[in-house]
């Protein structure tokens, strides 16, 4: 099967790189700095939304919107302290290389950009297998809107029915479903299986290593 015929689209944070809880701590501290006490469990469930949407989701429409930019900037600075040691999840790089070798066009769909995206790609260490990246900078609306996944499909040159999207959050599953692609969930981001399935996951695996060992007969066979 030709490489242009099917695409494997991957979320990055919590799916390929073990960063969700680093984001939680960075957001918690960013909120704390402006006097907002937001529970970590609530932040965890919001991770995966673009920064502006995450702040709105957690603080509500009646918040002081003048604080939004400062909160996001604080999160970015705090999270940036981890860039030199972001840990890839088990099997992340080998999974992407195997899929690439099997004829899949591998594209990343992430809200990360710039130095953050570079740090994530260094952690995954499989640039030779990645055809392109659809980042938040490329779309008007982030997940759970379908745009990031649709942009990834454009980069791959593949229609939705020939693609699979792998992610770890409810927002990923909703975005993939709305884009018309088959969705696969992973549990390594900390979101429960039932939540992923309710949001559109056709199959759920523990982490990239589990997905890699289960390729035969699975959605990415």
Automatic annotation (TrEMBL):
<dbReference type="GO" id="GO:0008967">
    <property type="term" value="F:phosphoglycolate phosphatase activity"/>
</dbReference>
<dbReference type="InterPro" id="IPR006439">
    <property type="entry name" value="HAD-SF_hydro_IA"/>
</dbReference>
<keyword id="KW-0378">Hydrolase</keyword>
<dbReference type="InterPro" id="IPR023198">
    <property type="entry name" value="PGP-like_dom2"/>
</dbReference>
<dbReference type="GO" id="GO:0006281">
    <property type="term" value="P:DNA repair"/>
</dbReference>
<dbReference type="InterPro" id="IPR036412">
    <property type="entry name" value="HAD-like_sf"/>
</dbReference>
<protein>
    <submittedName>
        <fullName>HAD superfamily hydrolase (TIGR01509 family)</fullName>
    </submittedName>
</protein>
<dbReference type="Pfam" id="PF00702">
    <property type="entry name" value="Hydrolase"/>
</dbReference>
<dbReference type="InterPro" id="IPR023214">
    <property type="entry name" value="HAD_sf"/>
</dbReference>
<dbReference type="GO" id="GO:0005829">
    <property type="term" value="C:cytosol"/>
</dbReference>
<dbReference type="InterPro" id="IPR050155">
    <property type="entry name" value="HAD-like_hydrolase_sf"/>
</dbReference>
